[in-house]
Write a structure and sequence with these properties.
The complex is a heterodimer of chains A (443) and B (474).
Chain A lengths: L2 H11 L4 E17 L2 E19 L2 E7 L4 H16 L24 H4 L3 H17 L3 E17 L4 E17 L2 E9 L7 H15 L8 E7 L1 H13 L4 H5 L20 E3 L21 E5 L2 E2 L6 H5 L25 E4 L6 H6 L3 E15 L4 E14 L2 E6 L2 E6 H6 L1 E4 L4 E5 L2 E5 L2 E11 L2
Parallel strand pairs in A: 7-12, 11-18
Antiparallel strand pairs in A: 1-2, 1-4, 2-3, 4-5, 5-6, 7-19, 8-9, 8-11, 9-10, 12-13, 13-14, 13-15, 15-19, 16-19, 17-18
Helix pairs in contact in A: 1-2, 4-5
Chain B lengths: L1 H8 L4 E17 L2 E19 L2 E7 L4 H18 L16 E5 L11 H16 L4 E19 L4 E19 L2 E7 L5 E4 L3 H6 L1 H16 L2 E2 L3 E7 L1 H13 L4 H4 L29 E4 L20 E6 L2 E2 L6 H7 L7 E2 L8 E2 L3 E4 L6 H6 L3 E13 L5 E13 L2 E7 L1 E6 H6 L1 E4 L6 E10 L4 E9 L2 E8 L4
Parallel strand pairs in B: 4-6, 9-19, 10-17
Antiparallel strand pairs in B: 1-2, 1-5, 2-3, 5-6, 6-7, 6-8, 10-24, 11-12, 11-16, 12-13, 14-15, 17-18, 18-19, 18-20, 20-24, 21-24, 22-23
Helix pairs in contact in B: 1-2, 3-5
The chains are: A alpha+beta (443), B alpha+beta (474).
Chain lengths: 443, 474
């Protein structure tokens, strides 16, 4: 059944003042490997139909994966009944109307039809390379397609089909490990040879163990680690809802210089270097929003509800899927950090004493307002002395304000790495930070 | 049985199929408004096959004969592709032939309670929180879940289960200047268990609303947690999370064998440590079970058809057991203790904690405090982080209290503590008795790729730990 039929069925069955239907179709496969062999290999075909019915200012939501006609009609009636049960919510200003959407394309037929055998061929390259060095590889490769479709009774009708290819590996030998990860909407974004070599190189360096004590360090972050900084800043305060509830790190800082002037962080659903998404889960066009522009704090992102709370605000196209369990509010799902002019080799050469970090792990906010975060390094924490890597240390724990860290950016890499992170994609370069606080080392 | 027969005909030496219908009803209230009210329903099936020594899995939301044939063939094709990068021979151990039915024991079907009365309870609690003018955001929610699951395998197993879950949470957030303070009830993750609406009634949301509001506001002006090594007493719900992260996860045998290395990570509890490693002090007894009433890991059979059971993980401080699947147990030379669960029809089962609990000790909580000359009592998780080996951890709590000369004193904010897992558990010198023991639910445990989120249960009473680093904060 196509989305036009689904939307027509739901909208015709609804007796509410306003009705919205969001459909996410997923056809996704994932191959996992560990100990140099494939141990899990899965595929899924599914739909998620979310119907939002509005009665006055009351909103009911019903979700199902059953696309049979009678089930869709039942879903519409159920959402309407749930709306009718509630007290009025004067803050709700109605569903948004249609807006002009930019045309963009992020669908690759080869990626959509990738077979398990083809994924296995790629995985085999990494496993054989690791095994031939006496190392062990683990990781995953996912391919698939999905379609986001949104329609409402005010005339919104939007559909966008996209593909995804995502591969990552950790290669290990004793206490040494290395990591690589790459994502894109085309299968050829994944170069298996490069993926394996990048992880293998860290393992080779990691054969030499050196000691590093906790304390203040200059750090060089691979893009995998830089991505964690952006992800945490997004989760901890780039939402217009968090800003309105004064839970955001942006509160009281808008317009202020708070990071190094070289730092620009923005969300852009139309940037073809990432995995584009031209509209949000309300069918509203995605606009570029700079949360940090040349080190100065900009604005959070909004959906139609948070925008309607303040005169002069408009949705920036960042609504998340409607949820019956409460909401995080709008979120940036296409994050980028502007590239600079440096590179990792140059960052290492210019470092007297520092740590080169592959990625962060299990990071959690400790103080949300200052974005103080704790977490571990993982899969390659390398000691740099006098401009050279001299060996690998054991993983270290940090407790650090990401805002303070980004106020001391010494260099930004010139290459962007696109990484899938949950439902979002993040495009980031390597960066060098003057100061980063490590609070313990793993024994 | 069509899927199993088809898989066998196509060359599978083992196959299982799960058909699952799930219903989830959520209500969320925020600042006097209904934030969300809705139903979620999902139905589908998944077929898992073993062809030679290679696994394949495929799933679909469409349950028709034609789709069953397509999906089963795809599962077999996927397994054959897995064989292109082969591993060691797979041994599943003794055949599993379980049959029967299981329904979660409950007093009140959570779907039989009217939405109006659920909403009224939440709005009452919400208004009580907002009576305190210092509260910036008041949030509360309840959830009712029902899973109808059918499992069958090519060895003759056929089991049907209906699992009910009820859960909810509420919180008060206070903001002043650069401080954001939160107090939650019953704890900061949604408190959830297998059971009926009585589970929510027992949590008494309205009766705790004003308390959490007052505590959140008081925290804004409280002293910050000092930085030092000291005696730490953890409340029951924080200790439950400590168990989850530093005992439950490292006991998962798939992590030990490296099959989660790229994502969730590995474990420091390697197999040579079994029956010989001192994980904790003599007081520490940790049990994995799937039989305790109301546990989020309580069921009739796991998703490989293994019956629910109870096994020790740590006995008098000695590490003695793992959480296992059929395949990993066989590699270790033992039988599975039934820890394989999937979070839906579209996911393969993985080794998951069921209920992992710290058995109660002999102390009264008041006596532990009275016996502590200098220390801090911390309760209700606010942040949690642990390394990929489950060794180096740092947790933060919503609230802390200074303990001086055997008495609970000043309120402390922004409390954190850090340590190394076996050192921490070996420093345990007091555990409160069964009167203070509570089985908590952790509804959001993530593992696997694609990510699976599943509920686990953890029972604990408060415990005391010596020489712990606290106040790890900048």
């Amino acid at each position: 059944m196509n989305f036009r039929e689904i939307a027509d069925t739901v909208l015709a069955a609804s007796t509410s003042n306003e009705t919205e239907v969001v459909c996410i179709r997923q056809d996704e496969s994932l191959t996992r490997f560990a100990n140099n062999h494939i141990h899990q290999n899965v595929t899924e075909t599914n739909y998620e139909i979310t119907v939002r019915c509005v009665a006055g200012t009351r909103v009911g939501t019903a979700v199902s994966n059953d696309i049979r006609l009678e089930s869709l009609r039942t879903l519409a009636r159920r959402a309407g009944e749930l709306a009718n049960l509630q007290p009025e919510n004067p803050e709700f200003k109605g569903l948004p109307g249609p807006s002009r959407l930019e045309s963009t394309m992020a669908f690759d037929r080869e990626t959509a039809s990738c077979t398990p055998a083809r994924r296995a061929d790629g995985v085999g390259i990494v496993c054989r390379k690791a095994a031939s060095n006496g190392y062990t590889a683990a990781g995953s490769m996912s391919t698939g397609s999905s379609t986001l479709s949104v329609a409402n009774s005010k005339g919104v009708f939007a559909e966008f089909e996209t593909t995804i290819a995502d591969a990552s590996t950790v290669v290990m030998n004793g206490t040494a490990s290395g990591w690589s990860h790459v994502s894109g909407w085309q299968l050829d974004a994944v170069n298996w040879e490069n993926l394996a070599d990048e992880a293998l190189e860290k393992v080779r360096i990691g054969q030499k163990i050196v000691e590093a004590e906790p304390g203040e360090w200059t750090v060089i972050l691979d893009p995998f680690a830089t991505a964690d900084l952006l992800g945490m800043l997004a989760f901890d305060g780039m939402s217009g809802l968090a800003y309105q509830e004064e839970r955001s790190w942006m509160n009281g800082r808008t317009g202020q210089g708070m990071m190094s002037p070289d730092v620009t962080i923005y969300d852009d659903g139309l940037d073809m270097r990432g995995i584009p998404m031209p509209f949000d889960f309300e069918g509203q066009p995605k606009h570029r929003v700079a949360m940090i522009e040349n080190g100065v704090c900009g604005n959070p992102v909004y959906d139609s509800h948070t925008a309607s709370r303040r005169p002069g605000l408009k949705s920036t196209g960042h609504a998340m899927p409607p949820s019956a369990g409460g909401t995080f509010g709008p979120l940036p799902l296409n994050l980028f950090m502007e590239t600079g002019t440096s590179n990792v080799e140059g960052m290492i050469r210019s470092t007297k004493r520092g740590l080169y970090i592959t990625r962060f792990w299990y990071t959690r906010p400790v103080h949300p307002r200052d974005v103080v975060v704790t977490g571990m390094t993982r899969d390659g924490t390398l000691l740099v002395q006098d401009g050279e890597i001299v060996g690998a240390t054991k993983s270290m724990r940090f407790t650090q304000s990401y805002l303070e860290a980004l106020a001391g950016v010494a260099a930004i890499g010139d290459r962007l790495r696109v990484l899938k992170a949950g439902g979002a994609t993040i495009g980031v370069p390597a960066i060098k930070l003057n100061q980063f606080r490590f609070t313990s080392a793993t024994r | 049985m069509r899927a199993i027969n088809t898989a066998s005909m196509l060359g599978a030496r083992y196959a299982d199929v799960r058909i699952i219908t799930s219903r989830n009803q959520s209500i969320a209230v925020k600042d006097g408004r209904v934030e969300g009210l809705g139903d979620f329903e999902s139905i589908g099936f998944g077929v898992r096959v073993l062809v030679g020594n290679a696994w394949g899995f495929a799933s679909s939301a469409e349950i028709t004969a034609l789709e069953v044939d397509r999906v089963t063939a795809l599962a077999v094709e996927t397994a054959k592709a897995s064989a292109k990068v082969p591993g060691e021979p797979v041994n599943l151990g003794a055949p599993v032939t379980s049959t029967g039915q299981y329904v979660t024991p409950l007093r009140i079907d959570p779907f039989s309670v009217s939405l109006e009365s659920k909403l009224a309870m939440l709005l009452d609690a919400d208004s009580r929180i907002r009576r305190n003018p210092g509260v910036k955001v008041a949030e509360s929610s309840v959830l009712a879940v029902r899973h109808d699951k059918i499992f069958a395998n090519s060895e003759g197993a056929f089991v049907e289960q209906t699992i009910f879950e009820s859960g909810g949470s509420m919180s008060a957030t206070a903001v002043a200047g650069n401080e954001i303070q939160v107090r939650s009830h019953p704890h900061s993750f949604r408190q959830q268990g297998t059971g009926g609406w009585e589970y929510i009634e027992d949590a008494d949301f309205p009766g705790n609303a004003e308390r959490i509001a007052a505590e959140a506001v008081a925290l804004l002006t409280a002293e910050a947690c000092p930085s030092k090594d000291t005696t730490l007493i953890l409340g029951s719900s924080q200790l439950a999370l400590q168990i989850h992260e530093s005992c439950g996860h490292p006991s998962e045998l798939d992590r030990v064998y490296g099959t989660e290395a790229a994502f969730a990570g590995r474990s420091f509890l390697t197999t040579e440590k079994l029956n010989g490693f001192r994980y904790g002090s003599n007081l520490v007894n940790l049990t994995a079970d799937s039989v305790r009433p109301t546990g989020l890991g309580t069921f009739g059979w796991d998703d490989e058809g293994i019956p629910a059971s109870s096994t020790p993980l740590v006995r008098e401080g000695l590490f003695v057991g793992y959480l296992m699947s059929r395949e990993t147990a066989s590699t270790l030379g033992v039988e599975s203790n039934g820890c394989m669960r999937a979070d839906g029809w579209n996911r393969i089962p993985l080794i998951r904690m069921a209920n992992v609990s710290l058995e109660p000790g002999a102390w009264e909580l008041d006596d532990i405090i009275a016996d502590t000359d200098d220390g801090i009592f911390m309760e209700t998780n606010r942040s949690w982080s642990i390394d990929d080996m489950r060794y180096n951890f740092q947790f933060g709590t919503e609230v802390g209290y200074e303990i001086k000369k055997g008495k609970k004193g000043r309120l402390l904010k922004n409390c954190t503590y850090a340590g190394i897992t076996p050192e921490f558990w070996n420093s345990c010198d007091a555990i409160a008795n069964a009167k203070h023991w509570k089985l908590w639910g952790t509804p959001n445990c993530g593992k696997g790729e694609p990510m699976q989120t599943i509920g686990t249960g953890h029972g604990a009473s408060p415990g005391r730990f010596r020489n712990v680093r606290v106040g790890v904060f900048r």
